[in-house]
Amino acid sequence: MVHIGNRSISPSRAAIRWTRGLACCALLCLAAGCPVEPLDRLTLPGPYTAVLELVHVDDGWRYPLDLSVIYPDADPPEGGWPVILFSTGWNQARASYDGMASQLAEHGFVVVIRYFPSLGIWDLGFDLFDLHLEQCDAVLAWCAEQNALPGSLLYGRCDMTRVGATGHSMGGHVSIVLAKRDPRVQAVVSLDALVDRPGLYAVGDLSELRAPTLYIGAEEGGLCSTFTLSMDDPVWLYDYTPAPRQEILITGADHLDFIQHRTGEPLIDTQLCSVGSADGYLVRDIASRYMIGWFTYFLKQRPEYRTYFDGACSQEDEQSGAVAIRRALNETDLIGEP
């Protein structure tokens, strides 16, 4: 269930309320000029209602922080919930990923979606990438401060010893480098940031990466998925990542399927980013299931969730042809049985 302001939607009641809710959303969105599309529904619903808060923080950092904070609407457990830092793709707003982030919160995570001012348009290259990492540090510091501040939005909700990082496209690369730098990051999920050429892009030496890393990619991503100067000899990040690591390639998916509400230039979308044969909702649903399984397993030590990435559930996906999977899961770094 997702709660935004005074509106709540329960997956179990979606069929009953769909027509009325969609009509209301359509009227509101037409008035505001926003796209008419409901939040994604998940086939793996969580036990919590997810609450979305939009937060503006201006505390002297070089840029104000505009954040989407999504958390379970329930009393937190002792020590708080694990924190997931969600980094947007280039030229994408925070709302582009509300659905996937809310689904994580339904499973007992505090999720903070961040984007870089200008959406990454005004600056390119390593200088901008360094500022992305600096902003990640600032966001995690803000979460720790809010967790310790009585009466704050996140008071007692954040377990800063259990942090995960995820992101789409460039945000996926940022998440990988953040995990190399910050030992608090104990698990990574990279959404379609798959191809790199060592020495050219910012991920650098992946042998230094110690967090379990899951790559989820689009089979038909095209140039938007490469981040490389040539497709003649692509290099896959999975091949250079220490175990435990896994790669999920979603059949028929394209690079933009991971985005719920797209922003940016349509010409770029259509000319550079291939349009895949898969349904975008199904792509996000598959990605969400693997993401929830990975983070719950590694950050919450819940062995029963291994089935979603290395067990009966993932085997069913493989047999149906929905995904292709490569694994390098050191048993010494895992808990429980598949």
End-to-end Cα distance: 28 Å
Helix content: 25-40%
What is the total domain count?
Answer: 2
| CATH structural fold name of the largest domain | Rossmann fold
Overall SS class: alpha/beta
Total E-strand runs:
13
List key phrases describing it.
338 residues, alpha/beta, Rossmann fold, 2 domains, 11-stranded mixed sheet, two-stranded antiparallel ribbon, 8 helices, disordered N terminus
Question: Would you kindly provide a written description of the structure presented here, covering whatever features stand out?
Answer:
With 338 residues, the chain is α/β, with parallel strands linked by helices. The protein folds into two domains: 1-38, no CATH class; 52-333, Alpha/Beta hydrolase fold, catalytic domain (Rossmann fold), CATH 3.40.50. It contains eight helices and 13 strands. The radius of gyration is 19 Å and the shape is globular.
Secondary structure layout:
Elements: E1 2-4, E2 7-9, H1 14-32, E3 50-57, E4 65-72, E5 81-87, H2 98-106, E6 110-114, H3 126-147, E7 158-168, H4 170-181, E8 185-191, E9 195-196, E10 213-218, E11 235-236, E12 245-250, H5 266-272, H6 280-300, H7 307-310, H8 312-320, E13 323-328
Parallel strand pairs: 1-3, 5-6, 5-7, 7-8, 8-10, 10-12
Antiparallel strand pairs: 1-2, 3-4, 4-6, 9-11, 12-13
